[in-house]
Amino acid sequence: MPSFPFMLRTAVLAITLLATTTACDKDDEDVKPAASDTVEANAALGRAFFEEGLNADTPAARAAGFTRVVSPDYQQYNAIAPPGRDGLIGFVEEFYKAIPNLNAVIREVFATEDRVVVRWTITGNVTGAPFLGAAPSGQRLEFDVIDIWTIRNGQLYEHWDQFDWPRCLVQLGIQGLPAPFIEAAGRPVRR
What we know:
Layout: H1 4-27, H2 39-54, H3 59-69, E1 70-76, H4 84-98, E2 103-111, E3 115-126, E4 139-152, E5 155-163, H5 165-172, H6 179-186
Helix pairs in contact: 2-3, 3-4, 5-6
């Protein structure tokens, strides 16, 4: 068992370090995270991607929204999307050509000081151009997506996503899908 003098010295050292750290935090205003690095700001950035970008009414408004919230050197890790912010903007417009009434419904937003995750549902009807190679016939789409972004300099920087492709492909009427895809797409959605 440690001696009493050792425990006393350890306690005094701990109190001194705590007092010094607290005093430094109070005096050094640069220690606080920038407003764009807060959990709240990053959650708002994730919401803005949809509210100002994806759900905007016109191509110009969508491009302006994405330009505001997405980094110019955006890193896209979706294998079917073109790279960069301009690639993202063009990719979204391809969705709108196929699904003119596209709408994104945000389900949940989770954020940290350097990431944001949004779980959302895409809805709309394929009445325009072909979508993922499927000819338009008014197919009703409603499937879930999860997006993950890193934040850099107050903008969305790196992006990963997961789409509920089995449900989407079944709703598009794609034939010859594996039975597990058809089974999964037929299960009730739990949101």
